[in-house]
């Protein structure tokens, strides 16, 4: 397991009781290096949407608990936020909640001369994702998908 994955997994374990106590769920945790800085990002959500107070309360409690546990060697910046509009659908539970919603999908390599597709998320399993575009139903292997996110219209 990579260093980043290990830190993400440990952080989720530390965050779980804090999220529960604050009435939110963990959407995702990522530990990434951008430029010379490490970022530990926790995305939280709840059905009616999280507000700034939810983020502050969870951030304060998580920060204290991470200081106590002290399992991250690097200096890092902690960010707690909502997954927001256009949220990335990384896990099966994210896809499950988004069935019937409009999604945007980006591939690693072009298929039918394009890399980006949009449509209604119809189905998924461990190997594939099916979307209904305006023309037809399209099935993509999960291994060819770089990114799936909720589409948002303005």
Notes on the protein architecture:
This protein is an alpha+beta fold and about 150 residues long. Helices cover about 30% and strands about 40% of the residues. It contains three helices and eight strands; from the N terminus they run H-E-E-H-E-H-E-E-E-E-E. The protein has helices spanning about 5-20, 50-70, 90-95; strands at about 25-35, 35-45, 75-80, 100-110, 115-125, 130, 135-140, 145-150. The strands form two sheets. The chain has a five-stranded antiparallel sheet. Strands 1-2-3 form a three-stranded mixed sheet. Helix 1 (about 5-20) packs across helix 2. The longest helix has 19 residues, at about 5-20. About 20% of the residues are buried. The mean pLDDT is about 95. Belongs to the RimP family.
Compile the SSE list and pairings:
Blueprint: H1 3-21, E1 25-34, E2 37-45, H2 52-69, E3 76-81, H3 92-97, E4 102-111, E5 114-124, E6 128-132, E7 137-141, E8 145-150
Parallel strand pairs: 2-3
Antiparallel strand pairs: 1-2, 4-5, 4-8, 5-6, 6-7
Helix pairs in contact: 1-2
């Amino acid at each position: 397991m990579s260093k980043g994955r290990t830190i993400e997994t440990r952080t989720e374990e530390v965050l779980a009781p804090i999220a529960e106590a604050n009435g939110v769920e963990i959407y995702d945790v990522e530990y990434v290096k951008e430029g010379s800085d490490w970022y530990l990002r926790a995305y939280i959500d709840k059905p009616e949407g999280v507000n700034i107070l939810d983020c502050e309360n969870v951030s304060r409690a998580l920060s204290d608990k991470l200081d106590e546990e002290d399992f991250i060697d690097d200096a890092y910046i902690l960010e707690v936020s909502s997954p927001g509009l256009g949220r990335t659908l990384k896990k099966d539970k994210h896809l499950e909640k988004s069935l019937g919603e409009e999604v945007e999908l980006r591939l690693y390599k072009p298929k039918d001369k394009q890399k980006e597709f949009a449509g209604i998320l119809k189905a998924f399993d461990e190997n594939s994702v099916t979307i209904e575009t305006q023309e037809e139903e399209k099935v993509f292997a999960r291994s060819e998908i770089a990114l799936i996110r909720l589409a948002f219209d303005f």
